[in-house]
Amino acid sequence: MEVREIIKAEKICKSFYEPTEVAILKDVSFSIQAGEFASIIGKSGCGKSTLLYILSTMDTSYSGELWIDNISMKNKKDAELARVRNEKIGFVFQFHYLLNEFNTLNNVMLPGLKLDRKSREEVEHDAYEKLKILGIENEALKMPNQLSGGQKQRVAIARALINNPLIIMGDEPTGNLDKKNSDIVFSIFKELAEVYNQSLLIVTHDNDFARSSHRIIEMEDGRIIKA
Amino acid sequence: MNLRLITNVSISLLMARLKQTMVAAFGVTFSITMFITLLSFMAGLNDMLDNLILNRTPHIRLYNEILPSKIQPVNRSSEHSNSYNFVQHIKPKEDVLSIKNSSAIINYLEKDENVYGVAPKLGVPIFYNVGNINLTGAINGIDVDAENKLFAFKDYVSSGSTSTLKNTPNSIILGLGAAKKMLVQIGDNIQITTSTGERFPLKVVGFFQSGIEEIDKVQSYTTLATTQKLLGKPNSYITDIQLKLHEINKAPAIAKNYKNLFGTEAIDIQTANSQFETGSSVRTLISYAVGITLLIVAGFGIYNILNMMIYEKMDSIAILKATGFSGKDVNTVFILIALTIGIVGGLLGLLFGFGLSTIISHIPFNTAALPKVKTYPISYNPKFYLIGAVFSLITTYLAGYFPSRKASKIDPVDIIRGK
Fold first, then answer.
1. For position B418, what pLDDT does the model report?
2. Residue A18: which pLDDT band, with cuts at 50, 70 and 90?
3. Nearest to A204, CA basis, from A57, A194, A189, A191
4. Contact A116 B5 (CB under 8 A)
5. Which of A87, B58, B101, B405 would you label with B74, given CA atoms 20 to 30 Å apart?
6. CA-CA distance, B313 to B319, in Å (whole number)?
7. CATH number for the domain running over A5-226
8. What is the DSSP letter of A56?
9. Which residues of B touch A171 (CB under 8 A)?
């Protein structure tokens, strides 16, 4: 398999200044290859989520260098970063963040329509495909408030997949779910990684979860201690 | 940009808060309705009040006035042409009030292309004799047809008719106020005395009501020929030539021209009635101020609803931004919501404004001062509707601008990490 660096971070530092200056990330450097299923673990407050948001381009107040798909994210405008997120990154958060005004299918389609690379019909077709992978194609026309917690999270994963992103980033994606649903979500991630060769970077504090991923990045006090 | 998608998102957010958005839109509707109604009503009233005077006032009036000569004999002397001449105790020169060579002037004016119409007039002070009492009054000798054409004389004759005046010799149309004082009815004969002391009987054929009571107590109308007969003057004897022009704005320039041409005094309507212009513009200003205040209040309503919506939809905004919507896209979403409220509310407001002013224009309004007016006056000037539409868009845009900017600046990380 061809080795391709999809994310490369070099000497990323970040501090919070309120109420006093606290260095939250100290010279973090690492990279992720295409097809990798990596998880970041560490105690709360060690900076793992902060790192994820910097990698996701949503947080831009840091020093150091970040390349996504070999393109530097330095000095990019808000709209350009939005485009990068739209095209290359899929997100799954602890909370599902589905738009209550749209049904399942439309929620999944939203980033695809935003990308505006395919026709509406094609995006709809893709969305059905993704829902099928996640086993919830029957819920396509339901509204989010008619779904269970586990189903909502699966819709969120389908939404993350719609533009066939370079990488899926997750911030505690199973944090709000019970054991059964966590297992479902985890097996979905595993399937995505192994069957579809999807790269994943998941922040978690569930060690069982992390142990079953391909690579564990362990953080402590703003540094990577084991990659 | 993907405008269709953005519009879609806007509409769904709007639908999710349909009740509040409707309330906000209703605020705009209400203010535009009131704006239109207020301005239409005020403009209608202004027009009516102006017409009360302007319809009755010639654009240019040519007349003679007894004045001291501007050029004294000493100034004509070549001996003293290089010196300052001081003449004291100048008295007005003796002159007749009638316009010299009036028929030639009228002929000339009727051919002038600026002139819409010419009406000669002969004004004389008289006394109405009621038993032993003499009431002061004034008679205007008029050309009935010209007066009807230029000043809608007919409209102000509240009973009787102008054609009877024209066809009956020695007849008079009395001011309503004067008639009430004298207790006369149509068909009665009255006695008048001219300034030279001659008595004259006249037959009352109608009553005249100008809407200005002071005038109605004094003024009466006869034909030119009757007045000339009263005075014992020939039929070229007139004191005023009244003109209406095609374009009222040209009046001052033309008046000046005629003054030199005919050697009479000439006064234009703008100079004679400047106070009406001022009154109208101040009233209009006040109605605009009230209307715009209403709109601004509605703008605050929209501002509120959008702010609330943004607080409620923080999560949605965060995820939109996380999945690739830029700040500008989010901004557009909320501006679109604001403009939708503005357009829908504004259009309804224009419609309701039109409806309400139509209703007002059918409400009976009877006043003794205005015999012609039966209902409240309304002006349907399209300018008000245009201003209303433009202002509703501007205020809603401004009301949407700040909340939208706030939404576009929301940092998704703050929201997502806060959960």
1. 67
2. confident
3. A189
4. yes
5. B101
6. 10
7. 3.40.50.300
8. T
9. 416
Q: What is the SS3 assignment for B172?
A: strand
Residue ranges of the domains in chain A? 5-226
Q: Do A87 and B324 touch (CB under 8 A)?
A: yes
Instruction: State the pLDDT at residue B310.
Output: 84
Chain B contact set for A101 (CB, 8 A): 12-13, 15-16, 316
Q: Assess contact for B266 and B61: CB atoms under 8 A.
A: yes
Phi and psi of A14, rounded to 5°?
Answer: -150, 140
Q: From the CB of residue B170, how many other CB atoms can be counted at a distance below 10 Å?
A: 16
Residues 6+ apart with CB under 8 A from A50: A14, A24, A25, A59
Give residues with Cβ within 8 angstroms of B56, minimum separation 6: B151, B156, B210
CA distance A98 to A143: 10
Q: Within the 121-160 window of chain A, which residues sit less than 8 Å (CB to CB) from chain B? A: 159
Among B306, B258, B221, which Cα is nearest to B105's? Answer: B258
Contacts of A82 in chain B (CB under 8 A): 321, 324-327, 329
Strand segments, DSSP code E, in A97-137 are none
| Bridge partners for B341 per DSSP | none
Residue A111: which of B12, B15, B323 has the nearest Cβ? B323
> Quick one: average pLDDT of A92-108?
88
Rounded CA-CA distance B362/B197 in Å is 51
Is residue A2 predicted with pLDDT exceeding 60?
no
Q: pLDDT at residue A97 above 80?
A: yes
Element (H, E) at B368: none
- Six token digits for residue B101: 């060579």
Give the model confidence (pLDDT) of A63-83 as tens digits.
899 999 888 888 888 888 889
Burial class (CB in 10 A: 0-12, 13-18, 19+), B91: exposed
Q: How many CB pairs under 8 A join A and B?
A: 79
**Cβ–Cβ gap B325/A102 under 8 Å:** no
Which residue do the tokens 């004969």 mark? B189
CA-to-CA distance for B38 and B32, rounded, in angstroms?
Answer: 10
User: What is the C-alpha separation between B212 and B108, in angstroms, rounded?
Assistant: 33
**What is the spatial distance between Cα A153 and Cα A161, in angstroms, rounded to a whole number?**
13
What span, in angstroms and rounded, lies between the C-alpha atoms of A17 and A169?
26
> What span, in angstroms and rounded, lies between the C-alpha atoms of A123 and A101?
19
CA B107 to mean position of chain CA atoms: 32
Which regions of chain B are under pLDDT 50? none
Mutate to test the interface with B, among A54, A101, A143, A177 (most CBs of B within 10 A): A101
C-alpha dist (Å) from residue A86 to A220, B325, B408: 30, 7, 17
Residues in a beta bridge with B122: B141
Condensed to tens digits (0 to 9), the pLDDT of residues B153-178 reads: 888 888 888 888 888 889 999 998 89
Nearest in space to B61 (alpha carbons), one of B243, B195, B209: B243
Across A88-102, average pLDDT: 87
Neighbours of B84 (CB within 10 A): 5
